[in-house]
């Protein structure tokens, strides 16, 4: 016996399909969302060359994630400071505005505009030692966003946990192309950096953690003021 096929050909089938699609659309239009999952494309992302910081955590550093079509995309941005053994972080106190993954790495989840803003509570400086990575919402592996590696310039230039005139003097002694003096991260050491440091004068945190050097990984160095 031949099997029966419902509305196999002709205009009758077309009319039935249109009716079904119309009914389905009317029934679920309010509850239906189209979700497009994309991954960050390193060449399309904004990753400033120098990371600003202050012991008080009131200098913003923003990475913007975009996909290969230049649309904002979400994901987790990770800053890996394992190449910055002299950088010092304020001890987390429950109000730290980023995720502390380890003594040498922190993370922020990007918003729907693809923006991940870090308010780093840190002192001292670092040259070409920071890996900036993105973990897509689909999960690992991480995508390296920055080549060359990024710098760190804290207004607490000497890393003693408080912004003082000694930091202003140290900043002033550096040349115009020194990335560790670019606390305003505008790609040059200029008057904007001195003005920004002056605006943060006296900012501090009660204790600093120095990420462990490779020779002593597994431990923490803590400096209390």
What does this structure look like?
- With 225 residues, this protein is of the alpha+beta class.
- It is built from three helices and 13 strands, in the order αβββββββββββααββ.
- The chain has one domain.
- Strands 1, 3, 5, 6, 9, 10 and 11 form a seven-stranded mixed sheet that branches. It has a four-stranded antiparallel sheet with strand order 8-4-12-13, with no helix packed on it.
- A hairpin with a 6-residue loop joins strand 9 and strand 10.
- Helix 2 packs antiparallel against helix 3.
- The radius of gyration is 25 Å and the shape is globular.
List keywords for this structure.
225 residues, alpha+beta, 7-stranded mixed sheet, 13 strands, globular, disordered N terminus, disordered C terminus
The helical percent reads 10-25%
Which consecutive residue ranges, at least 5 long each, have pLDDT under 50? 1-20, 214-225
What integer value in Å does the Rg equal? 25 Å
Shape: globular
Q: How confident is the prediction overall: mean pLDDT?
A: 84
Query: What's the N-to-C terminus distance?
Result: 91 Å
Let me know the largest β-sheet: 7 strands, mixed
Alpha plus pi helix count: 3
Please give a quick description of this structure.
The chain has 225 residues and is α+β, with helices and mostly antiparallel strands. It has three helices and 13 strands.
């Amino acid at each position: 016996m031949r099997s029966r096929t419902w509305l196999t050909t002709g205009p009758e089938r077309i009319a039935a399909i249109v009716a079904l699609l119309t009914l389905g659309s009317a029934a679920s239009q309010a509850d239906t969302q189209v979700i497009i999952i994309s991954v960050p494309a390193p060449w399309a992302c904004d990753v400033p060359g120098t990371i600003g910081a202050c012991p008080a955590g009131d200098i913003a550093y923003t990475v913007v994630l975009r996909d290969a079509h230049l649309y904002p995309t979400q994901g987790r941005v990770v800053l890996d400071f394992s190449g910055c053994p002299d950088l010092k972080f304020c001890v987390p106190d429950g109000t730290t505005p980023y995720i502390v993954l380890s003594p040498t790495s922190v993370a922020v989840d990007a918003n729907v505009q693809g923006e991940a803003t870090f308010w780093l509570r840190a002192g001292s400086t670092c040259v070409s030692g920071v890996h900036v990575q993105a973990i897509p919402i689909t999960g690992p592996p991480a995508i390296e966003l920055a080549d060359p590696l990024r710098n760190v310039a804290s207004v607490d230039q000497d890393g003693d946990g408080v912004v003082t005139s000694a930091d202003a003097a140290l900043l002033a002694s550096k040349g115009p192309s020194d990335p560790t003096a670019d606390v305003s991260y505008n790609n040059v050491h200029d008057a904007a950096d001195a003005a920004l440091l002056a605006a943060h004068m006296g900012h501090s945190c009660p204790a600093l953690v120095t990420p462990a050097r490779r020779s002593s990984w597994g431990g923490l160095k803590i400096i209390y003021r």
